[in-house]
Write a structure and sequence with these properties.
5-stranded parallel beta sheet; binds adenosine monophosphate; 3 domains; binds glycine; 5-stranded antiparallel beta sheet
């Protein structure tokens, strides 16, 4: 039996762990730091996900057969490199490949150099030139992005000059995101449906997973602030076979080849954030890891052994894998703390879950929970991802919302319209 250590502690990690637990070859699963719901499926430790020395020491103590590093920060900081240097088999890219998410400037330059379709852009390191450019361009909305990681908050869609100039000053002069925003990208505003495609790649072969759709805004009708994601569904109805073929030819393979040509072979899960513009599919962003909450709808659709796939990636034999997906759809509705994505309370009791932190009819991925005796308490902005499959999207949504209605905590907030746009697209 193979023992696995998973680094991270959100809904994505819970989904990875529950899928790994299905594998006949997986024995013990460890997680650090984990959360209340994960603790029912894996032995949790209190080493932080960005504590590289701490995670290496934990791995040396536990001697797992594989370490899965799920979040962006530790990957960009070189956790996979540090673990591999100690001889561990690691699912997750090395730092030089994680740069594809760690620096927007790097990823934009990569796409330009290798003709991978993306929005036009300019890079700035001083606010004066950036403001001059905005005034000359005088085209809104303008898209302003911090170069480095910014907890998913580094993108501003400015509706007018005032908002744009403010964003530039906050990022470059006031270092709103620290060093991450000392360099910025100003890029063309694109329009069209968004699609998330996660993929497995060992640097030679790339296998896209089933597509998905995120819902980033906090409120119904895509209103309110940007969040980490309030709900997802899979497959994404806009992602037709023709679009998939176009993306493979013009985006996926060229990206894997470009990373190899740069000496930055990407091994792990490469995430493509795409926009289907009137001029074809374009890359909005790359992530060097599984998306959250996309993973919560993609992995339940996987009809296969996740451990075997991870191992095939690590051993560079992905070309021999036959990866299959279930028919039907999957939907995830995020239940968040009142006030999220701004300030919110923690420590509120969650009602309606069984002793495993689950529901009989749905899978509940815990994002921000902790255990207090046998009670689950809220412990983050996004608290739970209530997830269900169905024979089609409408059925999956119905099942997920039925689950949501059984769960309560004070101030709980969730979107009532997850999947509505997708249902319209299906006609
Ligand atoms: P990101 O954090 O890079 O995923 O960006 C957050 C969101 O901003 C994306 O999901 C898009 O909805 C939007 N966005 C980013 N770049 C652009 C762009 N060039 N044009 C239009 N919308 C964009
Ligand atoms: N859901 C988008 C992300 O994981 O960045």
């Amino acid at each position: 039996m193979k023992n696995v250590l998973v680094v991270g502690g959100g809904g994505r990690e819970h989904a990875i762990i529950m899928k790994l637990a299905e594998s006949p070859s997986v024995g013990k699963i460890y997680c650090t730091p984990g959360n209340g719901g994960i603790a029912k499926y894996a032995q949790c430790f209190d080493v932080g996900a960005t504590d590289i020395d701490g995670v290496v020491a934990l791995a040396e103590r536990l001697s797992p057969d594989m370490v899965v590093v799920a979040p962006d920060d530790p990957l960009v900081m070189g956790m996979a490199d540090a673990l591999e240097a100690k001889g561990f088999m690691v699912f997750g890219p090395k730092a030089n490949a994680a740069m594809i998410e760690g620096s927007k400037v790097f990823s934009k330059e990569l796409m330009k150099k290798y003709n991978i379709p993306t929005a036009f852009y300019e890079v700035f390191t001083d606010s004066e030139s950036a403001v001059k450019f905005l005034k000359k361009q005088n085209s809104y909305p303008a898209v302003i992005k911090a170069d480095g990681l910014a907890l998913g908050k580094g993108v501003i869609i400015a509706q007018n000059e005032e908002e744009a100039v403010k964003a530039v000053h906050e990022m470059i002069d006031e270092l709103k995101f620290g060093k991450s925003s000392s360099r910025i990208v100003i890029e063309e505003f694109l329009t069209g449906p968004e699609v998330s495609v996660l993929s497995f790649t060992d640097g030679k072969t790339i296998v896209p997973m089933i597509s998905s759709m995120d819902h980033k805004r906090a409120l119904d009708g895509d209103k309110g602030l940007n969040t980490g994601g309030m709900g997802t569904l899979s497959p994404n109805p806009y992602y037709t076979e023709d679009v998939a073929k176009e993306c493979m030819e013009k985006i996926f393979l060229p990206t894997v080849n470009a990373m190899n040509a740069e000496g930055r072979t990407f091994e792990g899960c490469l995430y493509f954030g795409l926009m289907l513009t009137p001029n074809g599919a374009k890359v909005i962003e790359y992530n060097c890891r599984f998306g959250d909450p996309e993973t919560q709808v993609v992995l339940p659709m996987l009809n296969g052994d996740l451990y075997e796939i991870f191992e095939a990636v690590c051993r560079h034999r992905l070309s021999g894998s036959d990866i299959k997906w279930h028919k039907g759809s999957c939907a995830c509705v995020v239940m968040a703390s009142g006030g999220y994505p701004e300030s919110y309370p923690k420590g509120l009791e969650i009602n309606g879950l069984n002793e495993k932190g689950q529901l009989d009819e749905c899978t509940v991925y815990h994002a921000g929970t902790k255990l207090n005796g046998d009670k689950f308490l809220t412990n983050g902005g996004r608290v739970l991802g209530v997830t269900a499959r169905g024979e089609d999207l409408a059925a999956a949504l119905k099942n997920a919302y039925n689950g949501v209605e059984k769960i309560s905590f004070e101030g709980a907030h969730y979107r009532k319209d997850i999947g509505q746009r997708a249902l319209k697209a299906l006609g």
